[in-house]
Amino acid sequence: MNGRKAAGYKEGIVSILINTILFIIKYLVGIMFNSIAMISESVHTLSDSLTSIIVLISFWLAYKPADEEHPFGHGRVESIGSIIIAILLLITAYELIVESIKKYLNHELMIFSWSLVAILIISAIIKEILARWSLNLGTVYNSKTLVGDAWHHRTDAIASIIVGIGIIFSNYYWWLDSVLGVCVSSFIGFIAIKLLIETSKDIIGYKLPSKLETEVKNIISSISKDISDVHHIHAHKYEEHVEITLHIRLPPNISLSDAHKIASKVEEELKRLYGWNVTVHVEPYIESEKD
């Protein structure tokens, strides 16, 4: 199995198992101590399993082989999964900030118990470890889907800490967890929007970063002295599969055969260096014409 695909499956399955176990523990403890805060936190933990299920479905569909209707494969399904996860993260941030404001307005106090605090701390540590693991996989395999799931795990860890702080200081600073909740949820919302914007670029198509574009132009220009201009470089990402389209200008009197050979050399060189699938459009160079 492809290493990237295996990582996606592993992350999704492990996340679902851990979230389910933590949900059961938190829910039972919440019932035992009659703690609405703990029961609510258990539901939040269980909801993280939804994003992990999306990870599994995204990776399963993304690695289906190309067919007649999808000649470039199904890689963008993973990007769609990333967008869904980012939206769910944004919803989580919204719900957390609304809940924090309600607690502040209602002066809500929490039932104090060191047992509740201990469960929340242990849960936060486990979810933060899971978040770092998922984030590392997302970074290694360049997967925004895994990065998004990592932030869902981290959100749950932070929420557990906030609830724990609220329980510890409920008799002294009843407003503390509400204030922390607003601050943290605002940060989570920022991360969600950033992830949403970055993932949308993969679907819409994007321009190469300036440094990389300059590097590519220099490589192409060095292939043949007949190449006078390189422009309109556009990237179309299908996760691991990347399609690049670009234009080069050649002398108007060059033969079709020679123009084809130069274009093929450009495609082969960029494929060798970057692994891209490149399509080159050839234009005649006219002195008065500047792009």
From TrEMBL:
Pfam families: Cation_efflux, ZT_dimer. Keywords: Membrane, Transmembrane, Transmembrane helix, Transport. The keyword Metal-binding does not apply. One of its GO terms (cellular component) is membrane. The keyword GTP-binding does not apply. Residues 209-285 form the Cation efflux protein cytoplasmic domain. It is found in: Membrane. This is Cation transporter. It comes from Thermoproteota archaeon.
